[in-house]
Design brief:
single chain; alpha+beta; Umud Fragment, subunit A; six-stranded antiparallel beta sheet; 6 strands; 24% strand
């Protein structure tokens, strides 16, 4: 590790550049981990936050869902799926499969929210399914929901920038040499008096 530091002349970098380098590594590792996780789960969106009460009490607003892509024939009644719906274009829908029909070789998935009285207005086809829920983590999605509130994300970004950059901009106080000299002369005087 020390050879790497010498090769890139790490000690000659300004502190703000060292901080930026570490931030870039953290962001790169996070994005790389997400890409690997997406690939492993077979979907570009392996994490989804529940934003409504339509699946209550099974899933509440703020649940973080972990999704996995499954083959069309493996999606069965009682699976909770996340899908794009023409009747709800704002965001993907999280509902339970209540019926599967095979119409001329094409599977039609009828869905319904656990908290809804009626089945959804139209069926879903496999191409519209983002993934099948394999795990749900309560509460953690509230962080995402809070960041979606107007003005919250810019505020968080500003606070993080201040926390990271401000210490780099404040001049560091140099040790007071006159006090150190006074302390050493006192020590010398004490030694002479002994």
């Amino acid at each position: 590790m020390e050879k790497v530091r010498q090769t890139i002349k790490w000690n000659q970098w300004p502190e703000i550049a060292q901080t930026g380098f570490f931030i870039a590594i953290i962001i790169g590792a996070t994005l790389g981990g997400f890409v690997l996780f997406s690939w492993g789960m077979g979907t570009s969106t392996p994490l989804v936050v529940v934003t409504s009460q339509s699946m209550s009490p099974t899933l509440e607003r703020g649940h973080l869902l972990i999704l996995q892509k499954q083959a069309p024939e493996d999606i069965v009644v009682d699976d909770v799926i996340v899908f794009h719906a023409t009747w709800h274009p704002e965001a993907p829908v999280v509902h339970r499969v209540v019926q599967v029909d095979n119409v001329s070789g094409e599977l039609h998935y009828w869905t319904q929210g656990d908290n809804n009285i009626h089945v959804d207005p139209t069926y879903t086809v496999y191409e519209d399914i983002v993934g099948v829920m394999v795990f749900a983590i309560p509460f953690i999605g509230h962080i995402t929901l809070a960041l979606q509130e107007p003005g919250v994300l810019p505020l968080v970004i500003v606070v993080l920038i201040v926390i990271i950059i401000l210490p780099e901009l404040v001049p560091k106080k140099e040790p007071d040499d006159s006090k150190a000299d006074a302390d050493s002369s006192e020590a010398s005087t004490d030694e002479l008096n002994s």
